[in-house]
Specification:
This protein is α+β, with helices and mostly antiparallel strands. The chain is 37% helix and 19% strand. It contains seven helices and 13 strands. A six-stranded antiparallel β-sheet has the order 9-3-5-4-10-13, with helices on both faces. α1 crosses α2 and α4 packs antiparallel against α5. The longest helix is centred in the first third of the chain and has 22 residues. The N and C termini lie far apart (57 Å). The relative contact order is 0.17.
C-alpha cells in the first residue's frame, strides 16, 4: 500500500487536474443528474432541499483554491483506503471540511471584488432568486454577503403531481407515484425535477446580466461552480436556515452590516411537511411569511 505522503501527492495532482477540467467543461450540461462531479462532487436526490453557496468571480485567488483542494486531498489520503470507493459518509465528511475552510477564506478575504455589498446589486440578486420561486424551485432562505451568497431551496417537479398520491421510489432510485392504467394494473410514473445546476445557472445569469449593467462592466460576475449539499431531515433544515440567517454575525460583521442582506421565506415549518432519508418535500399547507433584514450601516 502506498504511504500517506505518496497518496496525498497523487490526490493533490488529481485535485489540480479536476480544476483544469472544471474550467474547461464547467457549463457543458445543465440537465438533471442524480450525481456528477466538476471541481466538487454534486448529488441531487429527487425532491431534496439544498444548501447552496456560490461566490463572486475573483473573490479568492486560484492559488488559494488550489491550496484548499490540496488540503481536502490530504484529508482523503489520510482517512481513505487506496482504491476503495467513496461512501456517502466519506463525501459528507470531506464536504464539511472543505466548506468550513472555504467559508473561512471568504469571510477573511482582504482583497477581491465585493460587488454584492452594493445595495443595487443585492437587490438585483434578490429579484433573480425570486423570479422562478414557486415555479422551478421553492425558496426557503438566503443571505447575500459582500463576496458570496448562501441560499436554501428545493427544486420542484416539472409537472404537477396529483394531490391524492403518495410519492415513492422505484427499484432504480427514481421518485414517482403509482397510478392505475385503464385495465386496472399499477404503473410507476416517474417525477422529473428541475435541475439544480440549471437553477443556479439561471440565477447567476440573470443577476450577472443586470448587475454588470449597473456596474458598467463586462465579464463574469460569478464563479461557475457552486458548493451544494442536500439536507437530510427537518433538524438539519432548521440548523441550515439558522446558519444562513446568522451568517453576517458569524463572519464578524454583526450589526455593522458590511453589505449583508438576509431573507427567510419560511418562518414556520408545518406539521404536514413530508420527509424521508433521501428527499424532503414541503407540503402546500406550510405557513409562508416573508421578513427582510437590512443590516444597518456602520
Amino acid at each position: 500500500m502506498a504511504s500517506c505522503a505518496t497518496k496525498a501527492g497523487r490526490y493533490c495532482k488529481q485535485a489540480q487536474d479536476a480544476i483544469l477540467r472544471h474550467k474547461k467543461h464547467a457549463m457543458h450540461n445543465l440537465e438533471f443528474k442524480g450525481e456528477y462531479h466538476r471541481y466538487l462532487p454534486h448529488i441531487q436526490p429527487p425532491g431534496a432541499t439544498f444548501f447552496i453557496t456560490t461566490r463572486v468571480a475573483g473573490s479568492l485567488p486560484e492559488s488559494v483554491m488550489l491550496r484548499l483542494a490540496q488540503q481536502a486531498a490530504r484529508v482523503k489520503a489520510k482517512d481513505g483506503v487506496e482504491g476503495a470507493p467513496d461512501t456517502e459518509a466519506d463525501l459528507h465528511a470531506r464536504g464539511r471540511f472543505w466548506f468550513r475552510e472555504y467559508e473561512r477564506l471568504l469571510h477573511e478575504a482582504k482583497s477581491g471584488p465585493r460587488w454584492l455589498a452594493d445595495d443595487r446589486i443585492a437587490a438585483i440578486l434578490a429579484e433573480a432568486m425570486h423570479y422562478r420561486d414557486r415555479e422551478h424551485y421553492q425558496l426557503d432562505a438566503f443571505c447575500i454577503m459582500p463576496n458570496h451568497l448562501h441560499v436554501v431551496l428545493m427544486p420542484l417537479p416539472q409537472s404537477e403531481i396529483p394531490p391524492d398520491v403518495s410519492l415513492c421510489h422505484d427499484g432504480e432510485g427514481n421518485v414517482g407515484y403509482i397510478e392505475l392504467t385503464p385495465d386496472g394494473s399499477p404503473r410507476f410514473v416517474k417525477v422529473e425535477y428541475y435541475s439544480l445546476a440549471k437553477i443556479t445557472h439561471r440565477i447567476k445569469r440573470r443577476s450577472a446580466r443586470e448587475g454588470n449593467k449597473v456596474l458598467n462592466r463586462r465579464g463574469e460576475l460569478w464563479e461557475h461552480e457552486s458548493y451544494d449539499h442536500y439536507i437530510r431531515d427537518h433538524e438539519e433544515w432548521q440548523r441550515t436556515i439558522d446558519y444562513v440567517l446568522n451568517n453576517p454575525v458569524k463572519a464578524g460583521t454583526g450589526r455593522n452590516g458590511n453589505g449583508a442582506t438576509c431573507e427567510t421565506m419560511w418562518r414556520k415549518m408545518a406539521s404536514c411537511a413530508r420527509l424521508s432519508d433521501h428527499w424532503h418535500k414541503m407540503a402546500s399547507c406550510a405557513t409562508r411569511s416573508s421578513a427582510r433584514y437590512h443590516l444597518a450601516p456602520p
